[in-house]
Amino acid sequence: MSLFIPDVDDGSTVTDFLPAERARGITIQSAAVTLHWPPLDSATPSKGVLPRSQIPHTINLIDTPGHADFTFEVLRSLRILDGAVCILDGVAGVEAQTEQVWTQANKYSIPRIIFVNKLDRDGAAFERTVKEVGTRLRGWPAICQIPWWEGGKGRFTGIGDAINLTGLEWGGGDGKTIQNFTLEQLKEKDSGLREEVVKARIALVEALCEFDEELLSTWLEHSDDALQVPAQAIKDSLRRCIIDGSGRLIPVFAGASFRNIGVQPLLDAVDDYLPDPTERPDPRVSLGSQECSLTDLLRGNISLAESMDKRMAKKANSSKALVAQIESCALAFKVVNDARRGVLVYIRVYSGSIKRNASIWNTNLHITERAQRLLQMQANDAVELQHIPAGQIGVIAGLKHARTGDTLVAWSGHHIKTGPPSPLNMLQLRPIDVPPPVFFAAIEPDSLSEVRNVKEILQVLLREDPSLHVNMDEDSGQILLSGMGELHLEIARDRLVNDFKAKATMGNIEISYRECVLAATTPIQVIYDREVAGKKSKAACEASIEPFDELAPPRTSYTIERDGNHISLNILGSIASDGPLGSSSLPANLPIPTIHTALINGAVAALARGPHRNFPVHASHVTLTLDPTTDFFGPSTTPSSISSAAHLAVKSTLESALQGNGIGLMEPVMNVVISCNEVSLGPIIHDISSARGGHVLSLENEGNEISSTLPVIDSKRIYAPPDPFASTGSGDSSEGPGQQRQVTARVPLKEMVGYLKHLRSLTGGRGTFIMTVHQFERLSGPREKAV
Question: Where does the UniProt annotation place the signal sequence (predicted)?
Answer without folding.
Answer: none
